[in-house]
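Example S7 (structure tokens).
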């Protein structure tokens, strides 16, 4: 004798709902991964006791005595670092990002000096020395892969696009120039150069973009603006 059993529609719905929940739970687990990193300041000193958070995975960890951390992230997550004495730092986590490092920029005020040493972010001796001798290191230039990405991030009114040579160029005046080739001219350590792609952002001490009266110092060729870069090596020998 054969028996045919029937499953009630309500039971089928419950089973389907549970299956969907299990599927998404497993998918969520599969997409998480651990990202390691290190935080420094003045491009030298490890920053400890700073909170590091992942926006999507909602994980939070603290940096250790070496400035290092390990945090759980989701795919396309954002690592967020917020400490009162430093500029906020956010970093999108790419598929191939297994290690992230960042140079935190110190906001120099008397109150922040007390907070930084009081909370143990950096020692009093290190901070005192850095402020007196390492001003050039208190920037986030190392967080950029090249000069062009740095310009995009720090000079919103300036355009980076392909120039007449088919390479990246910096255009201070956009497409409104009446001077023909409207790419800015480049001056590195006081010397006119054809482009700035060879400059490592980590080796830069300063970058300025001049136009109008500020560019007049460089003559008529500077009518489209001037990108002036000074490197750390050049500054140290002056």
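Recovered sequence:
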């Amino acid at each position: 004798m054969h028996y045919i059993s029937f499953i009630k529609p309500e039971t089928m719905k419950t089973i389907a709902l549970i299956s969907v929940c299990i599927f998404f739970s497993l998918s969520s687990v599969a997409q998480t991964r651990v990202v390691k990193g290190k935080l420094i300041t003045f491009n030298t000193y490890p920053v400890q006791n700073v909170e590091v958070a992942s926006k999507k995975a909602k994980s939070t960890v603290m940096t250790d005595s070496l400035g290092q951390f390990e945090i759980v992230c989701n795919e396309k997550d954002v690592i967020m670092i917020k400490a009162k004495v430093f500029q906020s730092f956010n970093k999108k986590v790419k598929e191939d990002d297994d290690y992230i490092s960042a140079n935190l920029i110190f906001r120099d005020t008397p109150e922040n000096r007390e907070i930084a040493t009081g909370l143990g972010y950096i020692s009093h001796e290190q901070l005192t020395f850095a402020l007196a001798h390492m001003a050039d290191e208190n920037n986030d230039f190392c967080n950029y892969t090249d000069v062009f990405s740095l310009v995009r991030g720090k000079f919103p009114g300036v355009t980076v696009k392909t120039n007449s040579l088919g390479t990246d160029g910096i255009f201070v005046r956009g497409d409104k120039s009446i001077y023909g080739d409207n790419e800015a001219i480049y001056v590195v350590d006081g010397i006119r150069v054809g482009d700035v792609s060879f400059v490592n952002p980590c080796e830069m001490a300063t970058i300025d973009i001049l136009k109008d009266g500020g560019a007049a110092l460089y003559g008529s060729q500077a009518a489209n603006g001037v990108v002036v870069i000074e490197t750390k090596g050049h500054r140290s020998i002056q």
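Notes on this example. The first helix runs from residue 9 to 31.
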